[in-house]
Specification:
The complex is a heterodimer of chains A (406) and B (213). Chain A is α/β, with parallel strands linked by helices and 406 residues long. Helices cover 43% and strands 15% of the residues of chain A. Chain B has ten helices and two strands. The chains are: A alpha/beta (406), B alpha+beta (213).
């Protein structure tokens, strides 16, 4: 894992120095992160990178993963979809099973940190263990909360109220709550294999491995195989654009261990792609970060045609590589893209097809979008800014007032 | 001899108030009742988020009214509020409320609502003040430090006093006045820091220092 000093050329001395200054009052504090998967998905990815950096700053960051069986993860997946606004049915018995699993995990993942930091709904029932021992509890929501299903929101709200603070990724996710709510955007790590600079030969090697022709434009969507990412809609948009511009389509992604729907989606995508040898459907194993990086860098245009989105970190990843991005105006994506300045925001398959054609035909304009996007990510969506925001949140738990002098 | 000036850096944690507005009337009611830090946030946040690019419309209220409600005349009225003319946030709040109160609550009997997904979300902030590690005692030292401090430090000294109700528009003019350099203080006070980027402001202050060296 990279050391903080390695971020110096990217963020500058002043920002790096600020991190050490604000972390000093928290030296030795135990921040216990708890989520539901150690591999796959954005939460696991960011925690893997962040924990060593917190430790370098003197904060004793830990990470525990709750356990659950197939039924538990089917329930949490349905809950996830319901919070995204997709209608789902959860019975009283499902909710009860969810709570029981949470309680069973208290034996396995005992909350003991100075700050207990829970991520997403899966481990939320652990807050039942909260006592009057002075520990601070934070709940981090990584999900699009714009239109949560009422019964699921009611159920979760009973737990969320028991935290000191809830953290959301976008203003629209905020709801009336009796506790503090904080806005913290997620981030990418510019030094990870998924985002670091690559040589031309590294990019070509990956493209050759998958049989891609680098002399012809590549349009890609690199995202988990999930209905909410609308991979079938991507294929439809590509087919519309392909009538007028030559290009190849790459749909690449993996699956998380807590997502039982992945295979079903993949099967549907493969059916839709049948008969077109320019469509490459690539199911990537977990250790494919370098391949993802290379595929994004090889792309003339990157898509993120999500129907719902938490934040949509794949957009920041592509922007960091100065790629022109066409993405849906959902979840946190509008925070990353200013339409026609740092990328393109669309609302439909037809709109996406229109902009694929435009950007492939106007590469100079596409390049400007990509460069603006990269600078926006440098200022707002790198891991160092994310760590800074978390530290400020931790500090604010112990220090009241609108102005806090350190 | 006046006290030395110690440079500070401002960092911000953004808070969500869970309150949204769909119409000008709801915006007015929200502005009336949100905490002071929310008024500060919505009238200042763009300054640090766009350090080098041209500033956006000068406050979130104007931007939303124009772009989400489509009420261009009202948006222009809100945009024309000169933040630099207000030494306190309560006065600034009252000005926005009075502009919104002067508007009819409906247009030909139809209340204009923002489209779904484009509601105004009230946010607020907590400010953290961190030492920048630089202290100066004279104009030449100040000038040298000004070329080196990060944007967050320049921002703190030029904008946060307004939030603290410190009775002066900015720290620098106050410090120069205490140094007996009323000429520099007066020139700094004339600046409208809201009408430029933070980096543009840095260049303007350096120009003033060079003119009064």
């Amino acid at each position: 894992m990279p050391k903080l000093q390695e971020y110096l050329p990217i963020i500058g001395e002043s920002r790096l120095d600020q991190l050490f200054k604000i972390a000093r009052p928290l030296e030795g504090r135990i921040v216990q992160n708890i989520n539901s998967t150690a591999v796959g998905g954005g939460v696991a990815e960011i925690l893997t990178r962040m924990i060593p950096l917190f430790r370098e700053l003197g904060i004793d960051a830990r990470w525990d993963v709750i356990r659950g069986n197939e039924r538990f993860f089917a329930i949490t997946k349905a809950m996830h979809n319901g919070l995204h606004g997709v209608p789902v049915e959860l019975s009283a018995s499902d909710f009860e099973f969810f709570v029981e699993t949470g309680r069973a995990n208290i034996e396995h993942v005992r909350p003991w940190g100075d700050i207990v930091f829970l991520h997403d709904p899966q481990p939320i029932a652990l807050v039942e263990e909260r006592g009057s021992d002075g520990r601070h509890w934070i709940w981090r929501c990584h999900i699009d909360f714009t239109a949560p299903q009422a019964d699921i929101w009611e159920f979760l709200q009973g737990y969320i109220r028991r935290f000191d603070a809830a953290v959301f990724s976008a203003p629209a996710f905020s709801r009336p709550l009796p506790i503090r709510q904080v806005l913290i955007a997620p981030s990418i790590d510019p030094l990870s294999d998924k985002n670091r600079d690559l040589t031309e030969s590294e990019i070509s090697a990956v493209c050759n491995r998958f049989g891609l022709d680098r002399t012809r434009p590549i349009v890609s969507q690199i995202s988990r195989f999930d209905f909410l990412k609308d991979p079938v809609g991507v294929i439809k948009a590509y087919k519309m654009a392909k009538k007028h511009v030559d290009c190849q389509l790459v749909l690449a992604g993996g699956g998380a261990t807590d997502d039982p729907e992945g295979q079903k989606v993949l099967d549907e995508v493969r059916r839709e792609a049948e008969g077109d040898s320019d469509i490459f459907v690539l199911f990537l194993p977990p250790a494919s970060d370098l391949a993802i990086n290379a595929l994004q860098r090889a792309s003339s245009v990157v898509l993120q045609k999500s129907l719902r989105e938490g934040f949509g970190l794949t957009v920041a990843e592509a922007l960091w590589k100065a790629r022109p991005v066409i993405a849906s105006a959902v979840g946190g994506i509008p925070l990353q893209i200013t339409h026609k300045y740092s990328g393109i925001l669309t609302h439909s398959i037809e709109g996406t097809a229109f902009w694929i054609k435009q950007l492939l035909n106007e590469p100079a304009y596409a390049a400007v979008l990509g460069q603006n996007g990269r600078e926006h990510v440098r200022q707002n969506f790198l891991i160092t800014r994310h760590i800074k925001d978390y530290i400020l949140l931790f500090l604010s738990l112990e220090r009241p007032g609108d102005v806090i002098e350190l | 001899m006046a006290a030395p000036l110690t440079f500070q850096i401002q960092l911000t944690l953004t808070e969500l108030l869970g309150r949204r507005a769909r119409s000008a009337a709801e915006l007015r009611d929200g502005i009336r009742s949100v905490p002071r830090s929310s008024i500060y946030y919505h009238t200042h946040r763009y300054l640090l988020q766009h350090v080098r690019e041209s500033p956006e419309p000068p406050n979130d209220f104007a931007y939303w009214t124009t772009n989400s409600l489509g009420q261009h005349q009202l948006g222009e009225s809100l945009a024309s509020v000169n933040t630099v003319d207000f030494l306190g946030l309560e006065e600034l709040r009252d000005r926005f409320v009075s502009i919104l109160e002067a508007q009819p609550s409906s247009n030909d009997g139809v209340c204009v609502l923002s489209p779904e997904g484009l509601e105004f979300h009230f946010l607020a902030c907590r400010i953290f003040v961190v030492p920048a590690g630089l202290t100066v005692c004279s104009l030449p030292e100040f000038r040298d430090a000004l070329t080196r401090i990060p944007a967050e430090s320049l921002y703190y000294h030029m904008f946060v006093p307004r939030f603290l109700g410190a009775g002066a528009p900015d720290d620098f003019s106050r410090w120069f006045a205490a140094q007996g350099r009323t000429d520099v203080a007066a020139a700094l006070t004339k600046l409208d820091p809201y009408a430029m980027t933070v980096e543009g402001l840095r260049r303007k202050i350096l120009d003033i220092l060079d003119q009064h060296a």
